[in-house]
């Protein structure tokens, strides 16, 4: 996968894409839309993980951020169901485990 840039620089480019799960492919589709509308400066996947390069207010490159949910994509307007799912998953991850007495 790291050598795919060499293949894509040829006259007749060959496109090599990661095989993402349906959920992650959906998220990545929206990150590409955010990139095309200049909300972010870049997006890519590596080992099934989705990353973006944030855009600073002056248009220059910002920090790199890993995207775990669709509600984290700059410029994306999540549906109420997506917000509920994200909030529930955040609460489950942040709850401390119960200790046995």
Automatic annotation (TrEMBL):
<protein>
    <submittedName>
        <fullName>Uncharacterized protein</fullName>
    </submittedName>
</protein>
């Amino acid at each position: 996968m790291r050598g795919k840039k060499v293949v894509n620089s040829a006259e007749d480019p060959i496109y090599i894409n990661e095989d993402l799960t349906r959920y992650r492919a959906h998220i990545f589709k929206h990150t590409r839309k955010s990139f095309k509308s200049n909300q972010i400066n870049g997006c890519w996947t590596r080992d099934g993980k989705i990353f973006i390069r944030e855009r600073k207010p002056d248009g220059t490159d910002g920090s790199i951020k890993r995207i775990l949910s669709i509600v984290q994509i700059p410029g994306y307007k999540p549906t109420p169901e997506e917000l509920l799912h994200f909030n529930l998953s955040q609460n489950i991850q942040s709850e401390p485990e119960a200790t046995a007495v």
